[in-house]
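ok trying again, last paste got cut off:
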Amino acid sequence: MRQAVSVSLGSSQNDYSVAMELGGERVGLRRMGTDGDVRRMAGLLRQLDGQVEAIGLGGINLCFFCGRKPYPFHQGQELAGLAPDTPVVDGSTLKEWVEPETIPFLARNWGLDFQGRTALLASALDRYPLAAAMKAHGARLIVGDAMFALGLPVPFHSLAAFNLVAGLTLPFFSHFPIGSLYPLGERQLEIRPRWCRYYRQADILAGDWHFLRRHLPQRLDGKIVITSTVTASDRDSLSARGAKTLVTFMPAIGGRSLAANAWEAAFTAAAGRRLQGRELLEAVWSAGLEPEVTVF
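nice, full thing came through this time. structure:
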């Protein structure tokens, strides 16, 4: 059995081990959370290098994207460099090619009309193609990068405005430690309601679950949530808050919704190499994997 490991800066309480068959290959996938400890992540990357077929980086990006232009995130690049003999992926190819297909899938198979609906996207730097797909299907966007990553009350209502500001600031923010931009470790388990005005305005909540979860308001009546990495307790929480529908970009495995980096690592292990662009999309299609839709 080929082995893939997702090494995450997230909480170790969400660790798992599952097995799946992809492309005719049996793959064992394991998540190892480091509770926000970057040094521990570095040690695991060195330890796993050459011992498994693929490694996923969780909770940290190799690059941020403004449109299609990548801006290398220096801390992520340094960590990936600690495993030179094993392919290291961060889920960005899956986010670029696979996740945006969720939007036409929902329109085609579930009759979801995005035209005129308001979508709160937690981070366009993390999932720009998803933002573009929702916009192309008529959604009005609230782009939350400044709010969720920096704590600034500055929503963007157009990708053009976001692109302008992001292009000017990314050369600076790409040198920040990830802990100053993203909730890590136990912080991922805390919920502190904030930005409730924008949650209320939105018909759709989309993107990174840890960003969205951290500031969830008490009520989400009628909301559609499009995300990943939700646990069984997260599903219960969404239902209790009145959310209407939960959509995960990929189906649950072993009762868990896996992160993009974990899925990409699993497909990399199955193929024995990194899959580029449309190759990964076609591999997902060949495996018969589709978004999972739960109506509460």
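cool. The longest strand covers residues 25-33. The mean pLDDT is 95.
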